[in-house]
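In the design runs reported in the main text, the only information available to the sequence generator was the tokenized backbone. The following block is the verbatim input for one such run; it is reproduced so that readers can re-run the procedure and compare outputs position by position.
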């Protein structure tokens, strides 16, 4: 063992450790860059369609400017029978809402006929035993359209959170997907 070149082994070990350190630095830099790109894309999507609560000015310090986001590619044109691929959960829920609740054609307004003229009262007061009974016209109750309730529920951020949680709970387990 006295004739083993320890100094060469030590140099090779040091070169290996420095190479490994450089690889780790490159990986962490690429992760930071991807994270910044994801945040910029999410911010751009949020600014594109802000929610009601997000339209208020932030109370904290101003955000640090990030990298300039790349413009999103134009949406592919779809044929009338084809459903477009949604880019966000909001678009997904709007697509579901429009497919489950197609627009309802409003019926033509009913033409109401004028009521018959009232009889003219004679100038002499008559004693009547029966008072005049007028028919009571009841308005038809209208049920609220189901799309109006669904859209108000989906506009709230907490409802979206609950929907996603329920989907994860009620959906097929991840191990079986």
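Verbatim output:
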């Amino acid at each position: 063992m006295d004739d083993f070149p320890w100094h060469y082994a030590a140099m090779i070990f040091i070169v290996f450790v420095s190479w490994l350190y450089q690889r780790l630095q490159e990986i962490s830099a690429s992760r930071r860059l991807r994270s910044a790109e994801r945040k910029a894309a999410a911010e751009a999507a949020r600014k594109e369609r802000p929610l009601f609560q997000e339209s208020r000015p932030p109370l904290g310090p101003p955000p640090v400017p990030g990298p300039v986001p790349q413009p999103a590619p134009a949406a592919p044109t779809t044929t009338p029978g084809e459903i477009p691929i949604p880019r966000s959960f909001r678009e997904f829920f709007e697509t579901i809402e429009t497919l489950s609740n197609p627009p309802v054609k409003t019926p033509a307004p009913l033409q109401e006929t004028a009521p018959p003229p009232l009889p003219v009262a004679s100038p002499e007061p008559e004693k009547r035993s029966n008072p005049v009974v007028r028919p009571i016209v009841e308005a038809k109750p209208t049920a609220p359209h189901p799309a109006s309730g669904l859209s108000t529920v989906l506009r709230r951020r907490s409802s979206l959170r609950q929907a996603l949680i329920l989907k994860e709970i009620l959906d097929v387990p991840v191990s079986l997907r």
